Amino acid sequence: MKKRTVLLTGLATSLLAVAGVASYRKSTVVITTVAEMQARLSAMKAGKLTSTSGWSPHKVFVHLAQSIDYSMTGYPEMKSPAFQNTAGAAAFYAFSVAGAMTHNLSEPIPGAPAIAESGDANAAIDMVIAALQKFEQYAGEIKPHFAYGSLSKAEFAKAHVMHIENHLKLIQSQA
């Protein structure tokens, strides 16, 4: 019974992810490379940033840097292998096909240390840029994603860029 429940939950989650991404994608500008994302992040430092996500810009950017770093060091907590091989893999596939991700933008990485709400947003942007640079140069073993499971480096690069893009939808920069 448990196996059937996991599979049905995975299928339902996958279908919802595909439907959600399809509607989300209509208004999405897709950043396709890590270098383009680094340039976009750098440009954001010129303005005053605000967030409508419930998290401050500082907290959003530190969260993003954490996620990138964990792909190299390992995530603190993992979903079950059953989840990773069903719902997680299906969600990543749906996001990849759509070229965009959508997820709960105020949910921390499971097991990650709490992030201060306030802080220097530009310094946090620099953390994301540095984490992306480190990821690009990283030659070691890529660690499994806590929900998606094992990804190649290219797949993880895509996941990181889509993750950042999803969060940036709720960040505004004013000159």
Can you offer a commentary on this structure?
The longest helix is centred in the N-terminal third of the chain and has 24 residues, at 2-25. The chain has helices at residues 2-25, 34-44, 57-73, 81-98, 121-137, 153-168, and strands at 48-51, 171-174. The protein has a two-stranded antiparallel ribbon with strand order 1-2. The protein has six helices and two strands; from the N terminus they run ααβααααβ. Helix 3 (57-73) packs antiparallel against helix 6. It has 175 residues and is mainly α. Mean pLDDT is 86; it is low at 4-29.
Task: Using brief descriptors, characterize the structure shown.
175 residues; mainly alpha; two-stranded antiparallel sheet; 5% strand
Which word captures the global form? globular
Strand order of the largest sheet: 1-2
Element-level helix/strand string: HHEHHHHE
Q: Mind summarizing the main beta sheet?
A: 2 strands, antiparallel
How many strands in all?
2
List unreliable stretches of 5+ residues.
Answer: 4-29
β-sheet strand percentage = under 5%
From the alpha carbons, calculate the radius of gyration and give it in angstroms: 16 Å
